[in-house]
Amino acid sequence: MGKVTVGVAVVGAAAVCAAAALIARHRMRSSSLCVKAADILKELEEKCATPAAKLKQIADAMTVEMHAGLASEGGSKLKMLISYVDNLPTGKEEGVYYALDLGGTNFRVLRVQLGGKSGIEFTEFAEVTIPPQLMIGTPEALFDYIASELAKFVSDESEKFWLPPGRQRELGFTFSFPVMQLSIDSGTLIRWTKGFSIDEMIGRDVVAELTTAMKKRGIDMSISALVNDTVGTLAGGRYENSDVCIAVILGTGSNAAYVERAQAIPKWHGPHPKSGEMVINMEWGNFRSSHLPLTEYDNTLDAESLNPGEQIFEKMIAGMYLGELLRKVLLRMADEAALFGETVPPKLKTRFILRTPEMSAMHHDTSADLKVVGNTLKDILGISDTSLSTRKIVVEVCNIIATRGARLAAAGILGILKKMGRDTVRDGEVPKTVIAMDGGLYEHYTGYRNCLENTLHELVGDQLSQHIKLILSNDGSGIGAALLAASHSRYV
């Protein structure tokens, strides 16, 4: 009996020692993993760094590319497309005008009643989601779907909207993809962005495609203006504020437009604009520079995209991509540092499962236990019971990615200001510059917006920043298209 007791005691002791050793090894592993996650975080922070000196180099590079793009076709990664908008709204326009705003996975149809000096009297709109299969289908299927939804909207026009006698309804078409504009009401598609991939459409006139689809649907309406969303935002901003001369979109994608002196456009060969000015659609999403702080995550995202090698700037700053960059960083942390446990959460391997709205919600979480972060990780990725330290790491990754994006966007704006000669005080005069901003990223991601505005202030200095104002132009791209349809109406 004594031998058995001794044997049990020896086995028990051995088990205790083994358990202790296992716990010790687990603690050592946990400690090393913690350090590893911290190392990945530190590396990310260093590679995403955007000190003011680097941002000014990026701004200078943006200005150089703007000059090159204006000088000749293909002279720069920046297309610097001539919009043919040389007649911005004045506030005297009257009548009912429609707009169709195709800018991403959704499109909007609007109608506005313009009352001349009384401004915009009535506005109505509807938003429609584009089925994913139509984004990669045929041009005919896409435009027929758009026209069918437009027909429904037109049929619901109420009596408060009125059209002057003898006129046909007119529409402004916001097409937020790179287009080679041929006139104010025609232009051919250069390439798709934002997840669209319909190769048959490349090189075709987008207005002709929509017009054909509208006729098939029995819509009695002409398209009097084809505009990019950023050009529309500039027009909408100018209608409200005569000092607006730049527009920036920060939403699913990103772009900028500005008012250029006609004589500063060497590749412009058309009749000299009466106003002496022309709105330029920069297509700044395609900007690229050796100064951009690219990381392995950016390179992988680009390689996996539908347009590798294109839209590099957009992929670093726009809403479609920020959440995916966050996912890629967290995936590496989960894989190499077991951030979420011994196994990598399967859902974390799903591309674009983390969207920027979720990233924004986690970034803005101010609760003591970061409850929003915990719930988001559980609901979206199926990761439960995360520690507070893990949640803090997630928030920090959000902060690094959003901060880099916002600061780069501010550098891009500085580049435009430099091209326009509005980046310094000249001869004692300080020009007043109002920038119309639109897009869900700018409107809803407060941390991103604040960082962008603070960075621009930092770059231009205290004196000049007092004369630069950023205003939110809600639905500027849609309203602006309707306004440009009015200012370029065939009846004017």
Kindly describe this structure.
The chain has 15 helices and 13 strands. By secondary structure, the chain is an alpha/beta fold. It folds into two domains: 51-81 and 244-431 and 433-466, Hexokinase, domain 1; 83-241 and 475-487, 2-Layer Sandwich (Nucleotidyltransferase, domain 5). The strands form three sheets. A six-stranded mixed beta sheet has the order 1-11-10-9-12-13, sandwiched between helices. A five-stranded mixed beta sheet has the order 4-3-2-5-8. Strands 6-7 form a two-stranded antiparallel sheet.
How many individual helices?
A: 15
* Class computed from helices, strands and strand pairing: alpha/beta
N→C terminal distance:
112 Å
For the biggest β-sheet, the strand order reads: 1-11-10-9-12-13
Return the CATH architecture of the largest domain.
3-Layer(aba) Sandwich
Order of helices and strands: HHEEEEHEEEHEHEEEHHHHHHEHHHEH
Classified by CATH, the class of the largest domain is: Alpha Beta
What sort of overall outline do the alpha carbons produce when their principal axes are compared? globular
Kindly state the mean pLDDT as a whole number?
Answer: 90
Low-confidence stretches: 1-31
Sketch the major β-sheet: 6 strands, mixed
Helix content: 40-55%
In angstroms, what is the radius of gyration?
27 Å
Q: What is the CATH fold-level name of the largest domain?
A: Hexokinase, domain 1
Percentage of residues in DSSP E strands: 15-25%
Compute the number of strand runs.
Answer: 13
Number of domains: 2
